[in-house]
Amino acid sequence: MRRAVFLDRDGVINRALVRDGRPYPPAALDELEILPDAPAALADLKRLGYLLVVVTNQPDVGRGVQTREAVEAMHAELKRALPLDDVLVCYHTDSDRCDCRKPLPGLIFRAAERYGIDVRASYLIGDRWRDIEAGESAGCMTILIDRGYAERGPSAGPMHRVSSLRAAADWIGEPALNRLRVKLFADGADLNAIRSLAANPLIRGFTTNPTLMRKAGVTDYEAFARDALAAIADRPVSFEVFADEFVEMERQARKIAAWGDQVYVKIPITNSRAESSLDLVHRLSHSGVKVNVTALMAPDQILDAAAALAGGASAFLSVFAGRVSDTGRDPLPLMAAAVELLRPHPQMQLIWASPRELLNVFHADSVGCHVITATSDLLNKLSLVAKDLHGYSLETVRMFHDDASKANYLL
Fold first, then answer.
1. Is 266 among the residues known to form the active site?
2. Looking at 102, 183, 266, 290, which residue is catalytic?
3. Which end of the chain is more exposed for a tag (fewer CB within 10 A), N or C?
4. Distances from the Cα of 188 to the Cα of 195, 244, 323, angstroms
5. Is 406 helix (H, G, I), strand (E, B) or coil?
6. CATH node for 181-384
7. If residue 316 lies in a helix (H) or strand (E), which one and from where to where?
8. Does 181-384 match 4-174 at the fold level?
9. What is the pLDDT of residue 177?
10. What is the layout of strands, in order, in the sheet containing 86-90?
11. What residues of the chain score a pLDDT lower than 50?
12. HSE of 404 in the Cβ direction (CA atoms, 13 Å)?
């Protein structure tokens, strides 16, 4: 399948008209100004083998304050001047309830079907929250050109933030970690580490649990959670209930969910008496609570959790692939099957939880897993990705030699 870069129009490839901190489209062809960095940046993306597809909302046509002919004239000029493969347009307003108006991903899916595009190997570049949320819903890697508009940002946060299309193209062209489709979530409870990782654009979300919190010395659950949320307000964060009775578990879940729109509530698949939590999961999810069903390991648990979440709010399913591997089982077939199971449910994302080594990041990516969690110890190894093996070998030899010298061994 082919790879693509999906591009918003106004503010990405042509200049948006900003009034009172908000962007507006050009009203006519003579107002259309292609941004100076667009031709070279798009040419570089073409050389990398990407299809270039514009996906743009133009609701002024639906509102009757702009003509379709004027919009199409601008698109003809963009296609003449730039190496674009297609321009897909939604002319509807929100009241039309179409499936193509961003933040819905309809335009992306139409392009994918038309051109045979693998959306999970593709990027979306936009300058507004609607663009990023459409890309996230479709499964693309997302890049926000941050123009500082006076409006809310994307609820889930983009994969990367840049200041220009040139910077976005440069980032796409970088190897290894930037090409990963799986999203990295940091797993931990050390506030200093959380604040540091919040500044890393590779970290797309955060998770924690009572065990990690206890190890980190957390004594006040809510105070810790609110401090963590203050540091990472633009990305999803999962906090876990700790009750064992379902009535209390539900009370805790609803309180946790009220801490912020980006909060997901971790509900274990059973309580400590092996009683299923699926009725609670269904009730919470269908009342708007974002649930992260955790401690999943067996195939039937994944199937049942997905059924409970179907039709509900945005959700995660945390499959403890690392613990599965501890039993001598290969988790890859299990995770690949789970990815296919969740494919009809775009509001659900699969988490590869408890990884045992950095290679698991690439395992998760290879099967199309949406998210992998990693502790700081594992994240600290990211600098080793694609490291020259001869150089790494030499570093190892020098380490052995230095340690032997410091020990003053004699034979």
1. yes
2. 266
3. C
4. 11, 22, 17
5. helix
6. 3.20.20.70
7. strand 315-319
8. no
9. 66
10. 86-90, 51-57, 4-7, 123-126, 141-145, 160-162
11. none
12. 9
